Amino acid sequence: MSDEVTVEYVKGLKNDKNVLLIDVREPSELEKTGTIPGSINIPLATLEQTLQSSSNEDFQNLYKRDKPSLDAALVFSCHMGRRSQMALNAAKKLGYMK
User: Fold this and answer.
1) At a CB cut-off of 8 Å and minimum separation 6, what does 61 contact?
2) What pLDDT is attached to residue 1?
3) What is the DSSP letter of 75?
4) pLDDT above 80: residue 2
5) Which residues are catalytic?
6) CATH of domain 7-93
7) Residue 42, pLDDT score
8) Pairing state of beta strands 19-23 and 73-77?
9) Domain ranges across the chain
10) What is the pTM of this model?
11) Which one of 5, 53, 65, 94 has the lowest number of neighbouring Cβ atoms within 10 Å?
């Protein structure tokens, strides 16, 4: 997991099934600004619990994607970068390494 990616990289993730783009903003923010194509929304407040406790079936039902394995490529997004950095730190703490 790299600490930073470019906007161009994120734009290219729309159809990349090998990378999971997780927007950690609150749903109310998404209503105002829209979503990033190809992303799923897991608010930062629930991210750690979702990654740790959700079964693959539950994850698929909620997000229409497989629950990421510990070696999956994850990219986190938010408004200014602070929450995505916190999300990255939480994922690393759980053992996600790419």
Assistant:
1) none
2) 52
3) E
4) no
5) 78
6) 3.40.250.10
7) 98
8) parallel
9) 7-93
10) 0.88
11) 53
